[in-house]
Amino acid sequence: MTTSYRSVPVRPSEITPHSLYLSRREFLKAVGITTASTLLAACAPKTVGLTASPIKKDEFGDSANSFEDITHYNNYYEFSENKKAVNQLSRDFKGHPWIVEVYGLVRHPKRYAIEDLIRNFPQQERIYRLRCVEAWSMVIPWMGFPLASLLKEVEPTSEAKFVRFETLLDADQFPHQGSHLYPWPYREGLRLDEAMHDLTILATGLYGQSLPNADGAPIRLVVPWKYGFKSIKAIVKIELVAKQPGTFWRTINRKQYGFYSNVNPDPTSSRWSQAYERRIGELSHRPTLPFNGYAEQVSDLYKGMDLIENY
Fold this sequence. Notes:
With 311 residues, the protein is an alpha+beta fold. It contains nine helices and twelve strands. Strands 3, 4, 7, 8, 9, 11 and 12 form a seven-stranded mixed sheet that branches. It has a five-stranded mixed sheet with strand order 2-1-10-5-6.
């Protein structure tokens, strides 16, 4: 039975103390905090107090992956195609100062400093499953806020039907952006109703800390019922548009990467079987759930659609 989804602002006493996972020295080593990102952390949610248990579970009863797992196994092509190399390569990434521009078909286009986004939009903890198209998965305790709250502030016009996202273009910070095999910068998109859904968040942290570089600092999208590549990292532009935008992976291989990319165990054009997944830290495989387990909350968005054709 699926537990109903609840979203409540996280209280400091409910955040797992980071000392239970890494010592301060090991945390600095893992996340690669520089002087600039330390300044950013001053604006992020703090780890205060103790909890009865260090174990965090999602709404399905699955325990969150460790901080080590989440920060040391990452799809982040701007740094490397090697998932285990991203943590080291991202250590010196500077996520401060950082501006996110929200524009396009909106009544009030705005530019937000990352500090303002963290300060002005109440941060919540959302423990979500992440399912990647290569058939591996994690459970991650994100800190962030609903994308809908940001979009409501800029007020999309009636012509706006889609939301387009873009990652920072900076080959000095992203070494793999020097590769001409890919159409940089990374771009993604959602239909407006998907973007406005309460499950869709902009994450600014995890495990009660500011977002690690390897996981998309200082701000990334998280859409838990879609494959992980939809959850674009290091966002600098959010544009409201009338037509379905082009996306990074769909530009590379249109047959294999659909615009919707909802998690689907049924046969697709992907070269990886989607019927099963392996949770990082486990040896066995588990069946993949439609919409990554969030069907009760999001399936109405696609009523009447053929989700094999509209993959």
